[in-house]
Target: Transcriptional regulator, TetR family
Amino acid sequence: MDRRTAILDSAERRARKGGYYGFSFRDIAEDVGVKSASVHYHFPTKEALVEALGERYLERAKEALGNPADHPGVEGVQRVADLFLTANETDDLMCLCGIFGAELAALPAAIQPKIAAYFDYLTEWLTAALGVGAEPAHAQAVVAALEGGLILSRTKDDPAVLRTIVQLLQTGQKVRLS
Amino acid sequence: MDRRTAILDSAERRARKGGYYGFSFRDIAEDVGVKSASVHYHFPTKEALVEALGERYLERAKEALGNPADHPGVEGVQRVADLFLTANETDDLMCLCGIFGAELAALPAAIQPKIAAYFDYLTEWLTAALGVGAEPAHAQAVVAALEGGLILSRTKDDPAVLRTIVQLLQTGQKVRLS
DNA sequence: GTCTATAATTTGATAGAC
DNA sequence: GTCTATCAAATTATAGAC
Model:
C-alpha cells in the first residue's frame, strides 16, 4: 500500500473515533511508522488532510452503492443501510460525515461542502432507487434515521438498536407512533 | 448568575459547537471573565466538567418535557421534536448528547452512561406519551431520526431539512419509501 | 520522501499567595 | 474563590540536511 493511502486510512479511522480534534499528525505518523514531518509532506495542513478524507469517503460510497437502478425499492434501502451497519458492526466506527457534521460549527469552512455532498449523494441515490414518485424528503429522512441510529446504537453499545431501526425503515412501519 | 452556572453555560455552548476536544479551560475562562485556574476550582478535571454537563442536560430535558401523560399521541412527538428544533433554529447548537455520542469512542468512559441516559429518557418519555400499545422501538427510531436530522440540517445550513423530517414523523408518512 | 530539529502556541492541571 | 506563576506535555507547522 502506498504511503498516502496508509495515511488516509489511519486518519479516517481516528477521525471516525474521536472527530477532527481527536487525532494529531503524530498519532497518524505512529500508526503509519514514519515521523510527523513526513505526514505533512503528503498533506501540508490538517485541513487539506480532512478534505481528502471527505472526498475519498464519498467516492467509496459511490463504488459501494453502484447504480441505483440495479437496486429498486426496498433493496435500495437495504443497500444504504448496509453502509451504516458495516460501520457499526464490522468496523466499530462512526460515519465520517456524521461526526464531522456534528462538529461542523468548529471545523475549517472548506470541509462543509464535502460533508454536505455525502448526504446529498445518499439522498439522491436512494430517491433514484425508490423510483418514480419517490419523495426526496423521504429518502433524506431515512438517511437521517440511519445516521442518528448509528449514534444511538454506539452509545448504547448495542448493534440491535441500529438493526431494529433499519428493520422499521424496510418494513414500512409508520414513523408516526400514535 | 452564580459562577458555576456561568461555567456550565459556556462549556455547554462550546461543547455543542465543537465537541469534547473542541474547547479548553482557557476558552471557558475567557467567556466567563476569570482565569483558567478558577475554572479548575469549580471543576477539577475536564472529565468532571462534562459529566456535570451531561447531568444538567438531562435534567433540563426532563423539565422541558414535563409529564408524558399530559401530551398524548402526536403532541408528544411534537414536544420531543421541539427540543431539536429549538437547538437548530433558536440556539444554532448541536445536541450535546448527539455530538458526544458521535465522539464516544474517544471520550472518558465515565461520560458514556450520561449520554445513554439521555437517549433512554427521550425514548421512554415518548413511548409513554404514545400510550398503551406503543413500541419503544418506534420511539427510539423517532429520536434517532431527530438526532440525525439535526446533523443533516446543520450541515446543509437549512432549517427546513429538520422541519420536513419532523413533519414526516408527525403525519405518519411511511418510513418505507417504496 | 523521510529525517532531525525546532519554532510558536495551546493544552490540562497544580502550587501557593491573597 | 480567584489570582499569578508555572509545569510538562502535546499541538500544527516549517527549515534544511540527507
